[in-house]
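Figure 6 in text form: structure in, sequence out.
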């Protein structure tokens, strides 16, 4: 029950994240600076990440989850998480002139951010492993751990009013 509520909350968070991204894209002129372009690229990557993670959560809520779809989604999540450090080039913070929830602390506390990203990467690697193995209880537990790593980073490095 608690897990169901949590996965529903994650899916809701993912949906809200997509809506926020779409609004940001719609209201800003296309950026021309490298920093501004990096913000938009980053938002597209997070949209893909949220979609893949939300897809895994969606399968887990079904009576007969599609394990192949879960494994494929988990692989996408893991691959995106591995690339995440490249999504934050210097100049793609609030100074980019494009609406972004990325806090300056990502760059001023680079070691702390790197640690939070490493935590996510560790959890997503485990998620891919258990998803490939196919034990649904293990997958659900690891989805929770992965969501915790998402939240850990958001709590510290994402502006709270930009969900
Ligand atoms: C999601 C999503 C997030 C995380 C976060 C975990 O599905 O889009 O940002 O989970 O809500 O707390």
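Output sequence:
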């Amino acid at each position: 029950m608690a897990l169901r509520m949590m996965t529903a909350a994650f899916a809701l968070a993912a949906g809200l994240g997509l809506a926020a991204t779409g609004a940001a894209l719609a209201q800003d002129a296309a950026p021309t600076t490298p920093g501004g372009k990096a913000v938009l690229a980053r938002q597209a990557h997070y949209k893909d990440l949220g979609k893949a993670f939300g897809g895994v959560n969606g399968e887990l809520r079904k009576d007969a989850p599609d394990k192949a779809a879960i494994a494929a989604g988990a692989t996408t999540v893991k691959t995106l998480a591995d690339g995440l450090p490249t999504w934050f080039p210097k100049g793609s913070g609030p100074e980019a002139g494009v609406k972004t929830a990325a806090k300056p602390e990502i760059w001023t506390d680079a070691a702390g951010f790197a640690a939070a990203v490493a935590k996510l990467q560790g959890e997503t690697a485990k998620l891919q492993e258990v998803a490939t193995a196919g034990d649904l209880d293990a997958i659900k537990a690891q989805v929770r751990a992965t969501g915790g790593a998402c939240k850990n980073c958001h709590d510290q490095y994402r502006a709270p009013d930009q969900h």
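Caption detail: Residues 1-25 have pLDDT under 50 and may be disordered.
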